[in-house]
Amino acid sequence: MTNIPQIGQPAPDFSTPDQNNNLVNIADINQWIVLYFYPKDNTPGCTTEAQDFTKLSPEFTTVGAKIIGVSPDSATSHCKFIDKHNLSITLLTDPEHQLIEAYGAWRLKKFMGKEYMGVARSTFLISPDKIIAYIWPNVKTKGHAESVLKKIKELAAI
Fold it and tell me: Ranges for the Thioredoxin domain (predicted)?
């Protein structure tokens, strides 16, 4: 079983390239972080999730939160995904699964009777002091962005 960081623990450190091949380092982000892991660009659930976070991004900005999506896809794939769906969120590329594994999102999955390793859709809410404030370990996309926003408002007492 993969170790998933727990609420109250320090968030695993990362310095990972985004869609423009710029390194994004957790230490440089001094605000709430919504770090969400998703399997693949341009698939129905992943597109819905990214669009929902984009739609609510002004509200996330208002509460001082940065939205960061992570998948094994390449920077080129992320750029096409962002352009195709007019996304306004940061997407990190993690083809070696280092960040995905550090957060316990690389897990055994089952589909049509077959088992395989893949990205489990999950979200981590990280406080400005880099502590894991909340975890959604098995995300269903419908209404997820709204529930993350609600949780930040609750924890930040906004």
Answer: 5-157
